[in-house]
């Protein structure tokens, strides 16, 4: 069986604007899905490069999220820490089609034994 | 599959009966324009037949909105009348849809049974309106907005008045809503997203649009998820997923369109979202081309006309043997609602490497935002003043290098291409003395210069002297330019007061004053009126604005969870491992065996990793998962406990000592007063956290002298002191006054808390605030001014009547449940199981 490249994780409206939700991966790394004010959807590993803070709980503004633990700002586009801070978290490709969010299977399952 | 097509040159000047037969499916905007383009290149090459499902000639679909609104008649929007078809020898088969394409035989079959052969086939079937398949979507009175028949149905419905519900707050929906409301219907627009036209507008412009439509009498409901359309045979109403019901005699579905691809799909052409075409508009079958909204080119589908014109040109070039290739389009949008000027183009989703330039002019209702990446303009949103829309669009499409005009870009074409040098100072210097600098207060350049000549040497003294930039502040930059031009070296530079954050030039105090004076009631409104320079603020101003609004308008404020720090959004303290701690309130530090049992049970049940006695005289349960928070709260609620707000910029703890009830030195019932104070103040949101303590005698076992408000009981009453802090900078309290009764003490407490709520900056604890304003000021307001004190107390108690509710109980009842649930879960092994 050929596996689909994308996994459907549900309708866009499950995400509040400027908000985020979590997507646990059994045996793998939890993913955070974000939605910006303009409606674009992004996904990062839910783990701040600083000290593993859950980025899904931070504040989203423009295309970045401020980590809830010590206020690092992380780009939703590249996963890089912005400003003076240095570090990077994996970005997981997402796409929206007909109002549903799809996440790239391979990237989402990275690290699953 | 996509074999190159060779055009047989011999056929180029063939006589009519030898002409290639071109059959066009779709008598719409793209189909007819393609034919016009071909005819203009080579009028004799093809024998043309056009099939149209609609029983009429070709008309300008986008003008259906003005027809609905009553600004135009159908005759006025016809593009090609019957004589055009006749004069060009085109056979029009209208009112007869093509139902099959026989590729082997190269013929099409129409609904009436007619079989027509072709050499070349052009599919231009446009799009179909998307209909959300909720229960009731087939009832009579539920319509879409795509062709003239739909407009006729709306006009018939509008004759009898009544309620119209438009589902979809995009371009189409809003134009339908506008037309129906001009035709006398009472209109409600339901939009799934938080922002109207969210694909074209950012939050700020969407907010302005919404306010204007509401002002015109439409009801706009955003984040409205339709559950059901109600009615037996004819529609009677619409029900939302949250239970809201709205009356409706007419429902217009305008939620989107999908390329009309069924014919192509059945004919087994390559179809994804649209019919896949190459740069020459050729489908996977070299004899078949496609154009318009039904196609997908380089992955993109379009829903506007401008790209169709470009596609039609490339198509005609190819079909007349001079291929040029279509490379895709950049689109711009305007809303055709009279009196509303709105323009949007390109990409304005922002990004790290992009820069936003924002200008807001509240007095004229203007919002402009351009997005720059490197030296190029990549997006623009204009509201209120769209005069420069086409200029920006041009810069964007041509990918022009804008580095030379960057500083002046936002001011528009006239300004940016005006002077020889584009330094903003010289642009300002070039203005005449009559030019108006400050629109709010009608101050000219001459008046500002006179004010500076008269001795004003910084922004604040100009504001005080001639009022320029003292209201909305949008001309601050101009005034600063004038200062630097007039004073040269002597100008000390931009003022020293610290603005609230990098998104604004206003201080906290300015913002709070404006919120009250201008009656600003939402975050986007504050950002617009006060000319925020960022589209949606930052992590530092959003929580502050949320608080200022809540404090100013307790009954009207709508909470914005996305503008709360995580702890306040989750009503629990986040821990370093991402779990949460839960602290129930223990009034005045008193607990009961029942409460202790409930806490112990909860700690077991939710596998808490630690229970700790806090420095605030209560118990903290650590290591709770966000998914478990609502259930642990439910259990604690059941035992009578409420949130301790250990996470909030709010009242934290009221520490007490045992006092006169038990202690041999106690002078008053300090525990009792502490409990009363806590019951009065809990649940109140404040600029920062607030702690109270009551000690029964000057031995001060409750450490009252390092609290925001401390009370020391003495034989003759209660000594109140304020502004203490045991945190980073240790500070003892300052004496405020003495109260003789518990009742008087509570009145002082309420008044002091309210003064702090109304006047301190967000994230100021009482200590720095008291130091800034001074104890004399505080005593003047709280002790010496009795009516003022009582008014403060009254405002506090009023706010409490609204805000004092247990947030845990609200969550247990289901509020914001998405915050505690995962969006989905991936179980790889379950999915990988062989099918
Ligand atoms: C739990 C507790 C420590 C304890 O185990 O006893 C505690 C824990 C935290 N304190 Fe505290 N403070 C606790 C009593 C205190 C006290 C003592 C008191 O209230 O009598 C103080 C000094 C008194 C004061 O506030 O003036 C105190 C001064 C601070 C400060 C410094 C505040 C300042 O103005 O300088 C912070 C940092 C801040 O708020 O920005 C802080 C911040 C914190 C935070 C919220 C850190 C954070 O932002 O995540 C800690 C949360 C731990 C957690 O995960 O739950 N905590 N903290 C105490 C909870 C009391 C309660 O029942 O609600
Ligand atoms: C109310 C309204 C307002 C709009 N406003 C704007 C605007 O302001 N700006 C803008 O850029 N765009 C606007 N648009 C979009 C614009 O009208 C479309 O992009 C454009 O009409 C698409 O052209 P098309 O030829 O691909 O499709 P259409 O114009 O829809 O033409 C397709 C034609 O094919 C016919 N057809 C379909 N299937 C068959 C078949 N099997 N056999 C025979 N005929 C068939 C259909 O009946 C239709 O007449 C608006 C659209 C609407 C409905
Ligand atoms: S003193 Fe520091 S480490 Fe201890 S609870 Fe307070 S903030 Fe955390
Ligand atoms: S863990 Fe994210 S900033 Fe420290």
Automatic annotation (TrEMBL), chain A:
It comes from the Bacteria. Gene3D superfamilies: Rieske [2Fe-2S] iron-sulphur domain. InterPro entries: Rieske-like_NirD, Rieske_2Fe-2S, Rieske_2Fe-2S_sf. Pfam families: Rieske_2. Residues 6-103 form the Rieske domain. Keywords: 2Fe-2S, Iron, Iron-sulfur, Metal-binding, Nitrate assimilation, Oxidoreductase. PANTHER family: 3-PHENYLPROPIONATE_CINNAMIC ACID DIOXYGENASE FERREDOXIN SUBUNIT, FERREDOXIN-RELATED. This is Nitrite reductase small subunit NirD. It comes from Parasphingorhabdus flavimaris.
Automatic annotation (TrEMBL), chain B:
SUPFAM superfamilies: FAD/NAD(P)-binding domain, Nitrite and sulphite reductase 4Fe-4S domain-like, Nitrite/Sulfite reductase N-terminal domain-like. Residues 21-297 form the FAD/NAD(P)-binding domain. Residues 575-639 form the Nitrite/Sulfite reductase ferredoxin-like domain. Pathway: Nitrogen metabolism; nitrate reduction (assimilation). Belongs to the nitrite and sulfite reductase 4Fe-4S domain family. Signal peptide: none annotated. Residues 437-483, 500-549 form the BFD-like [2Fe-2S]-binding domain. Residues 332-399 form the NADH-rubredoxin oxidoreductase C-terminal domain. Keywords: 2Fe-2S, 4Fe-4S, FAD, Flavoprotein, Heme, Iron, Iron-sulfur, Metal-binding, Nitrate assimilation, Oxidoreductase. Its cofactor is [2Fe-2S] cluster; siroheme; [4Fe-4S] cluster; FAD. This is NAD(P)/FAD-dependent oxidoreductase. It comes from Parasphingorhabdus flavimaris. Gene3D superfamilies: 3.30.390.30, BFD-like [2Fe-2S]-binding domain (1.10.10.1100), FAD/NAD(P)-binding domain (3.50.50.60), Sulfite Reductase Hemoprotein, domain 1 (3.30.413.10). InterPro entries: BFD-like_2Fe2S-bd_dom, BFD-like_2Fe2S-bd_dom_sf, FAD/NAD-bd_sf, FAD/NAD-binding_dom, FAD/NAD-linked_Rdtase_dimer_sf, NasD-like, NiRdtase/SiRdtase_haem-b_fer, Nit/Sulf_reduc_fer-like_dom_sf. It comes from the Bacteria. Residues 648-782 form the Nitrite/sulphite reductase 4Fe-4S domain.
């Amino acid at each position: 069986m050929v596996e689909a490249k994308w996994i459907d994780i549900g309708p866009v409206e499950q995400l509040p604007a400027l908000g985020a939700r979590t997507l646990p991966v059994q045996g793998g790394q939890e993913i955070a899905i974000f939605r910006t004010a303009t409606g674009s959807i992004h996904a990062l590993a839910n783990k701040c490069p600083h000290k593993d803070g859950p980025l899904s709980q931070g504040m989203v503004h423009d295309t970045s999220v401020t980590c809830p633990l010590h206020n690092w700002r992380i780009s939703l586009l590249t996963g890089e820490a912005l400003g003076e801070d240095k570090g990077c978290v994996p970005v997981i490709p997402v796409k929206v089609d007909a109002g549903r969010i799809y996440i790239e299977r391979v990237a989402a399952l990275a690290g699953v034994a | 599959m996509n074999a190159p097509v060779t055009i047989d040159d011999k056929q180029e000047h063939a006589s009519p009966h030898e002409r290639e037969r071109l059959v066009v499916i779709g008598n719409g905007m793209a189909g007819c324009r393609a034919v016009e383009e071909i005819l203009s290149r080579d009028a004799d090459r093809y024998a043309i037949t056009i099939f149209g499902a609609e029983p009429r000639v070709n008309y300008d679909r986008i003008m259906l909105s003005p027809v609905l609104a009553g600004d135009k008649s159908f005759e006025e929007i016809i593009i090609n009348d019957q004589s055009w078809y006749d004069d060009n020898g085109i056979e029009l088969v209208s009112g007869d849809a093509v139902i099959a394409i026989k590729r082997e035989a190269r013929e099409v079959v129409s609904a009436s049974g007619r079989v027509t052969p072709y050499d070349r086939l052009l599919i231009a079937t446009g799009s179909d309106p998307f209909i959300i398949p909720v229960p009731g979507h087939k009832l009579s009175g539920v319509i879409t907005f795509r062709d003239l028949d739909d407009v006729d149905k709306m006009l018939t419905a509008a004759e009898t008045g009544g309620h119209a519900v438009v589902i979809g707050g995009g371009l189409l929906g809003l134009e339908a809503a506008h037309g129906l409301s001009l035709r006398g219907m009472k209109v409600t627009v339901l939009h799934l997203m938080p922002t109207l036209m969210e694909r074209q507008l950012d939050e700020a412009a969407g907010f302005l649009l919404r306010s204007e439509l509401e002002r015109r009498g439409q009801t706009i409901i955003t984040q409205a998820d339709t559950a059901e359309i109600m009615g037996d045979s004819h529609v009677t109403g619409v029900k939302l997923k949250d239970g809201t019901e709205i009356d409706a005699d007419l429902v217009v579905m305008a939620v989107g369109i999908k390329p009309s691809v069924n014919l192509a799909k059945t004919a087994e052409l390559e179809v994804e979202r649209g019919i896949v075409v190459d740069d020459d508009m050729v489908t996977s079958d070299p004899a078949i081309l496609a154009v318009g909204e039904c196609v997908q080119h380089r992955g993109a589908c379009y829903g506007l006309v401008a790209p169709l014109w470009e596609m039609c040109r490339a198509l005609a070039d190819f079909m007349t043997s001079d291929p040029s290739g279509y490379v895709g389009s950049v689109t711009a949008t305007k809303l055709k609602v009279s009196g509303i000027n709105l323009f949007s183009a390109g990409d304005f989703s922002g990004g790290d490497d992009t820069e936003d330039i924002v200008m807001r002019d509240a007095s004229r209702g203007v919002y402009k935002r351009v997005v720059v990446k490197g030296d190029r303009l990549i997006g623009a949103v204009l509201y209120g003043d769209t005069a420069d829309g086409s200029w920006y669009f041009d810069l964007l499409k041509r990918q022009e290098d804008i580095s030379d005009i960057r500083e002046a870009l936002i001011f528009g074409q006239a300004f940016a291409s005006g002077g020889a040098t584009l330094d903003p100072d010289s642009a300002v210097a070039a203005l005449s003395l009559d030019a108006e600098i400050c629109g709010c207060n009608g101050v000219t350049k001459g008046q500002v210069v006179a004010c500076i000549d008269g001795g004003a040497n910084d922004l604040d003294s100009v504001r005080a002297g001639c009022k320029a930039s003292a209201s909305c502040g949008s001309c601050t930059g101009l005034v600063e330019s004038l200062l630097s031009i007039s004073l040269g070296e002597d100008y000390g530079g931009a003022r020293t007061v610290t603005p609230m954050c990098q998104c604004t030039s206003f201080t906290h105090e300015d913002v709070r004053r404006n919120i009250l004076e201008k009656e600003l009631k939402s975050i986007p409104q504050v950002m617009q009126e006060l000319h925020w320079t960022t589209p949606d603020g930052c992590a530092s101003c959003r929580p502050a604005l949320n608080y200022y609004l809540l404090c100013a308008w307790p009954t009207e404020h709508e909470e914005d969870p996305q503008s709360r720090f995580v702890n306040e959004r989750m009503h629990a303290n986040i821990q370093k491992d991402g779990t949460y701690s839960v602290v129930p309130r223990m009034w005045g530090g008193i607990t009961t065996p029942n409460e202790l049992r409930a806490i112990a049970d909860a700690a077991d049940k939710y596998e808490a990793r630690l229970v700790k006695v806090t420095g605030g005289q209560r118990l903290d349960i650590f290591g709770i998962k966000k998914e478990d928070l609502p259930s642990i709260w439910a259990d604690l609620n059941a035992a009578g406990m409420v949130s301790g707000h250990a996470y909030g910029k709010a009242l934290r703890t009221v520490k007490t000592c045992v006092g006169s009830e038990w202690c041999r030195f106690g002078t008053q019932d300090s525990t009792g007063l502490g409990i009363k104070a806590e019951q009065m103040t809990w649940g109140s949101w404040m600029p920062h956290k607030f702690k109270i303590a009551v000690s029964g005698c000057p031995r001060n076992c409750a450490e009252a002298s390092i609290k925001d408000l401390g009370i020391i009981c003495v034989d003759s009453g209660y000594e109140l002191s304020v502004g203490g802090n045991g945190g980073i900078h240790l500070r003892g309290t300052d004496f405020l006054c003495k109260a003789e009764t518990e009742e008087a003490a509570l009145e002082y407490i309420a008044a002091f808390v309210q003064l702090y709520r109304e006047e301190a900056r967000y994230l100021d604890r009482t200590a720095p605030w008291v130091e800034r304003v001074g104890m004399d000021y505080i005593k003047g307001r709280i002790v010496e001014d009795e009516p003022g004190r009582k008014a403060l107390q009254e405002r506090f108690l009023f706010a409490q009547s609204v805000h004092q509710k247990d947030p845990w109980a609200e969550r247990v009842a289901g509020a914001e449940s998405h915050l505690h649930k995962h969006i989905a879960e991936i179980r790889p092994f379950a999915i990988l199981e062989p099918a």
